[in-house]
Amino acid sequence: MKSVLIADDDLSVLALMARALPEYRITTARNGFEALALASQLSDCDLLITDYLMPMMTGDELAGRLRAARPTVKTLMISSHTAFVDTKECGTDAHLAKPFRRAELRDAVASLIGGS
Fold it and tell me: What is the rounded CA–CA span in Å between residue 42 and residue 88?
């Protein structure tokens, strides 16, 4: 089963994404520091889904730090502030604008890491 780490400071968004991806092993974090701590305990992490604007650590900083520790991890940046997000500058593999539909999230995840 593929492993997905989701970081977002909005608990309702975390819950929505976790429910939308039942075929993956999901770990959720409320900020970048929590995500890094959890990632260090995971045996594998295939995908990081992270919000761009979070308190204490932005999503692009989180993606960079996680990639330094796990170079093969794929990253999906989500944000309602699409004007700020440049996928190449952020070092992420894909971007999804909030609000998004469940099917859009599922498609984005499947395109990055395949099915479970």
Answer: 26
